[in-house]
Design brief:
By secondary structure, the chain is an alpha/beta fold. The structure holds adenosine monophosphate (AMP).
Length: 510
């Protein structure tokens, strides 16, 4: 079992088909892709890299990313994808922890020599061209033999607390993840095209796997990032596109579509499927997205430790507006995906009753093998075969899971549990509120009190009194923020997640 066989299979059966695009320009057919990846694998072996060795990819999105991934797998190597926004010192920490031998970088990401490597290759240089030069006959380069539990992707968590941990994902994990996509997210056809609008170093890059399984097209935007105008225009030229977008990106697409006066039919031309997840999608945002862009959304809930796969809220469930619990379902993350079991448990690992909140546990073939060289963290996260996700949620009688919050974000005020997300949902409905983050602030009397950080929309001025009045109408009194702090922006990590630890620290430090 080796993910590289997916490429060999398409090179055989659909060799002449254009597989990779940079913007609207053809970059490689399946055969060209295979010939370059096989060439790279051969040269890496000749240079002394052996199966199981780690190589780092520290690059912004680029078509070459796909050739490097499959070249590394062809040679049996482990890929360590690193977020292009990390500081060189953070990357050096990862290089050291992973004991990586080589790194492929782009100069816009890092222009210094990183410590701890045997070789650092600029992916856009003559050196890289030589390494990736196509071999005349790709079938002559054998794909390294890999076992299902051999590691393919060593993914460092974004580390909103403490040092990042290396999540070990195996060939079997990623094969299962790819196949599950067809059943629970979207059946992919050969004519489809996936556009990499989010960093390929994170979950987004893994969408290459199911799309290569189907022999579909892979599109890397020219800008390498998220530019709604570019994505819509790409969609009209070579789409309809499928994409993965975090809720903040969905919001930007919808804003753009509204401002540009686009209709649902325009959105249908540009996009086949928009998969969203990775962070909570607030109800008000989802409703607007559906209104503006139509029912092309599918939600997934997963985490680095079980990539893409835990639950999904299907297009069918999202469209089922006549269902008596439709609104609750839209606010949920859907039902367990086909290849995993999902439970909600108390701290002792016993199932809680239907509708009660507990920690979400996942078991199945997509769950990581553990954390790299970190038995302590692995033992805490994986117990009796179950992954403890650190997410709190509750499940209804039909198996729909609703996430409440991360267990570490839960706050307890005067003995009552308060889920910040619930308060955030309410505040986001106030006109003029752009963003909200609710955290617990220290309080001698209550233990913790609810504090809301508010970002107002440009040109709008909001008062604590009007926000409080709105909360009084919609949630229990004890959940109302005791304090409102107006800020111009919220601190976020490199993947756009709000850093609540930093907000809490601001409160403790006064
Ligand atoms: P990461 O490992 O960086 O992908 O982050 C995974 C975490 O993001 C999960 O443990 C959840 O807390 C959150 N998350 C992922 N998907 C969703 C979703 N659909 N809705 C709400 N939160 C999500």
């Amino acid at each position: 079992m080796n993910l590289a066989h997916l490429l060999g299979r398409q090179a055989r059966t659909a060799g002449a088909q254009i597989a990779i695009f940079e913007g609207t320009q053809a970059w490689a057919t399946h055969v060209q892709w295979a010939a370059r990846s096989a060439g790279l694998a051969q040269r890496m072996h000749q240079a002394g890299l052996v199966p199981g060795d780690r190589i780092v990819i520290f690059m912004r999105n680029h078509p070459r990313y796909l050739e490097l991934l499959w070249g590394a797998w062809w040679a049996g190597l482990v890929v360590v994808p690193v977020n292009a926004k990390l500081h060189p010192a953070e990357v050096e920490w990862i290089i050291d922890n992973a004991q990586a031998r080589w790194a492929f970088v782009t100069e816009d990401v890092v222009s210094v020599a990183l410590k701890g490597l045997e070789r650092q290759i600029n992916a856009q240089s003559a050196e890289a061209d030589a390494l990736l030069a196509p071999v005349a006959d790709w079938t002559s380069v054998l794909i390294a033999q890999r076992e299902p539990n051999d590691i393919a992707w060593l993914f460092y968590t974004s580390g909103t607390t403490g040092r990042p941990k290396g999540v070990m994902l195996t060939h079997c994990n990623l094969m299962t993840m790819g196949l599950t996509y067809f059943v629970d997210v979207d059946p992919i056809a050969r004519e489809d095209a996936i556009v990499y609008a989010a960093p390929m170093s994170h979950g987004c890059g893994l969408y290459a796997i199911p799309h290569l399984m189907a022999g579909a097209r892979h599109v890397v935007p020219q800008s390498g990032g998220v530019d709604p105008a570019e994505l819509f225009s790409l969609g009209c030229d070579i789409g309809p596109l499928s994409t993965f977008a975090a809720p903040t990106i969905v919001k930007r697409l919808v804003d753009y579509a509204q401002l540009a006066g686009l209709t649902v039919s325009d959105a249908t031309h540009a996009f086949k499927t928009i998969v969203y997840g990775g962070a909570p999608m607030y109800f008000a945002d989802l409703e607007r997205a559906l209104r503006v862009m139509g029912t092309r959304f599918v939600q997934i809930y997963g985490q680095g430790e079980t990539p893409m796969v835990a639950t999904a809220l299907s297009r069918r469930h999202i469209a089922d507006i006549d269902h008596p619990r439709h609104v609750q379902r839209l606010a949920s993350v859907g039902v367990a995906q086909t290849t995993v079991q999902v439970r909600v448990c108390n701290e002792q690992g016993q199932d809680v009753a239907t509708g009660e909140t507990g920690e979400v546990l996942v078991r199945g073939a997509t769950v990581m093998a553990g954390y790299w060289r970190n038995p302590e963290a692995s033992g805490a996260a994986l117990r009796d075969g179950w992954l403890w996700t650190g997410d709190l949620g509750c499940m209804d009688g039909d198996g729909f899971l609703t996430l409440k919050d991360r267990s570490k974000d839960l706050l307890i005020s005067g003995g009552s549990n308060i889920y910040p997300r619930e308060v955030e949902e309410v505040l986001l409905c106030v006109a003029g509120v752009a963003e909200v983050a609710v955290v617990g602030g220290p309080d001698p009397e209550w233990g913790e009190v609810v504090v809301a950080f508010i970002v107002a929309q440009t040109g709008v001025s909001l008062t604590a009194a009007e926000l409080d009045a709105h909360c009084l109408q919609h949630i229990a009194r004890f959940k109302r923020p005791k304090q409102y702090i107006f800020v111009t922006e919220l601190p976020k990590n490199n993947y756009g997640k709000v850093l609540k630890t930093e907000l809490r620290a601001r409160l403790t430090e006064g």
